[in-house]
Design brief:
Two copies of one chain form a homodimer.
Chain A: E1 28-29, H1 41-46, H2 51-55, H3 66-76, E2 83-86, H4 89-99, E3 106-110, H5 117-123, E4 127-131, E5 150-154, H6 166-174, E6 181-184, E7 205-210, E8 223-227, H7 229-239, H8 249-260, H9 262-285, E9 288-290, E10 297-302, H10 307-316, E11 319-320, E12 332-336, H11 340-371
Parallel strand pairs in A: 1-11, 3-4, 3-5, 5-6, 6-7
Antiparallel strand pairs in A: 2-8, 7-8, 9-10, 10-12
């Protein structure tokens, strides 16, 4: 910390991104919920630059990103003034936490959820109101009825993968007509129900989505928000006071192509859902508890070892998953759904780890037996 | 404005970017200080995607952007922990205004300068302390001695194009040892002297630069900051609490290639400087006052018409320049240096406009003469 940093940020604890290995080739990377399939073929095509297209990089990008906003609006059947785009959904969320912090500072979100929310509260001086999950790790809608501030819910939730139904989301919106409710739908395309259909009749809803998961474009950094035109105008007011040209030319092109290809999108989402269901079944056969996931990851715990031990054992076998050293969830690991091949290797490694564990327990049991 | 926007942003006036025409082909675009030459050839090459490279977009970018940070550090002979990158220098400036707002809230900058500074002050609740320029539009260094807060100076300044010498910058740093001094060097490569050489011995200096001007990459959105490692760590703390993956994979590649090609960079900067000097001479011959510019634009006023009139007349001839409807500078227009060909067309249009003006004045003179 330098002597120039404003005191309010002295205790700020930044978000810790999942490990991004510098040489990913040798690793099976299942730690940051990326898509195992490449972006839609049109993305690769639009980036086959002829020199003339590359030359356009000398010019600023469109601060409205109209081409991309238009493509998203068309996809969801919205007006363009109901949509705005950001440099990843993290940027959209940052703008939203700034803009929609209520006067009393309270922002409600599940205690176990995207771990960036408390960081946004810290940086913008909001009061993070952490609402516990039920014992079965579900979000209880009625806990949010009559909230005295802005509400943020990831649906499906992370890292549990568990989803609220559209009816449950609607009940939260209806019970909080005078509070903004932000639904972070990063993982919605893998089996959840988007709240977009509730925009009609709910001016207190803001839906946030990303191209990083179901659109295979984590590296292009594209997020977007959909809401009432006044709410979107507020977000744009923040954006144009912070970083007007927030999307670069290349990502605007890539995003436009990705959202146009509906068939490729459906097909890759379907494959990931299938792989997820097989993986969950296999893990359960190996004695794991696997929370019912509607996302492109599963959250699972073994009866035989803690989350950290499983995480480390996989790491030694060049498989990275995500482990959270936090109360209530430190028995679990979060495993991104990869290709079927990658999941086979994960299961093979997991069997090895469990076998070793069993042998070790036997040896220890025998040693104890001898001593006693 | 929605009923959910926090009251503190009610009066916020966003920054107004220069016009980005949707169909730029028919226009000579001299309004946002872009480079008329394409990015370095290596940029185009690295973006010639084979499908495998395009596939990498499915993975998050490196939040440290180590490849790009390393290339910048090498170029300037710095350690990598003295450099950080942002999604354009606007994002870096936003982070800096957040991080380095002093406890008394005061941030000093020239009254006539980058018009985003007062917006940053507004959004982060800082007190913008506007320091007038001298009558000749120069920044007076001693006006900043003993400032009671953070100092931000664009050097060369915009929209005047006029530069402070390295000695003058050093005098400001020495006279404010306990204040952070941010030197915004967006235009420094066109004849200014970078303050980077002053980092040794001045832990109160933060230098901000961009790839949008001298590197022909406005559309890739890359800015960077150089400073003491503690100051850079503070900026990274903000970044990792706001938007960790702020640079996308494509821009990291493009930036790395652009900064590696030193010869192309020197050559394009040299051409722009030459074109600028010719343009300034020709405008002066036509009776314009042209401030002595070290940037890739000139700030000029005609003795025969106001800035708005000249701006509009050029616009009618499909040439866009920038005009600021503000006290003290509303006689001027800011003209980005384009190719020699574009400058010829600007001069031709300007002669037409002046001729028309003259004929019109004569007609009016005659009419008046007849009447009186």
């Amino acid at each position: 910390m330098s002597r120039f940093l404003n005191g309010r940020y002295g205790g700020l604890e930044p978000y810790t991104p999942g490990e991004q290995p510098k040489v990913p080739g040798r690793l099976i990377k299942l730690n940051t919920n990326e898509n195992p399939y490449p972006p839609a073929p049109g993305v690769s095509k639009v980036l086959q630059w002829d020199p003339e297209t590359a030359e356009q990089l000398k010019l600023y990008s469109d601060p409205e990103a109209a081409e991309l906003v238009g493509a998203i609006a068309e996809y969801y059947g919205l007006e363009t003034h109901q949509v705005m785009v950001g440099n990843g959904s993290d940027e959209i969320l940052a703008f939203a936490f700034m803009a929609f912090q209520p006067e009393n500072g309270r922002i409600y979100f599940p205690e176990i959820s995207y771990s960036f929310y408390p960081v946004y509260c810290d940086i913008f001086g909001a009061k993070g109101m952490k609402v516990p999950l039920r014992d079965d790790f579900t979000v209880c809608p009625s806990d949010y009825y009559g909230a005295e501030g802005t509400i943020v819910i990831t649906n499906p939730n992370a890292p549990t993968g568990m989803a609220l139904s559209l009816g449950e989301i609607e009940s939260i919106l209806d019970a909080n007509r005078n509070q903004l409710v932000i639904i972070d739908e990063a993982y919605v395309d893998f089996g959840g129900e988007s709240a977009v259909s509730l925009l009609d009749g709910h001016d207190n809803l803001l839906v946030v989505q990303t191209f990083s998961k179901s659109r295979s474009l984590a590296g292009a950094r594209i997020g977007f928000a959909m809401g009432h035109e006044d709410v979107i105008a507020d977000l744009n007011k923040i954006k144009f006071s912070f970083n007007p040209y927030n999307l670069n030319r290349l990502s605007i092109l890539a995003g436009r192509e990705a959202i146009k290809d509906r068939e490729y999108f459906r097909e890759t989402c379907r494959k990931i859902i299938e792989t997820r269901e097989s993986l969950a079944a296999e893990l359960r056969e190996l004695g794991f508890e696997v929370l019912p996931s509607k996302a492109n990851f599963v959250f699972a715990r073994s009866g035989h070892m803690g989350g950290e031990e499983y995480f480390e054992a996989l790491r030694q076998r060049n498989i990275i998953v995500r482990y959270f050293k936090k109360p209530k969830i430190d028995d679990f690991v979060r495993i991104t759904i990869g290709t079927d091949e990658e999941m086979k290797m994960l299961i093979r490694a997991t069997k090895e780890i469990l076998d070793e564990k069993l042998r070790q327990e036997k040896r220890e049991g025998m040693t104890k037996g001898e001593k006693s």
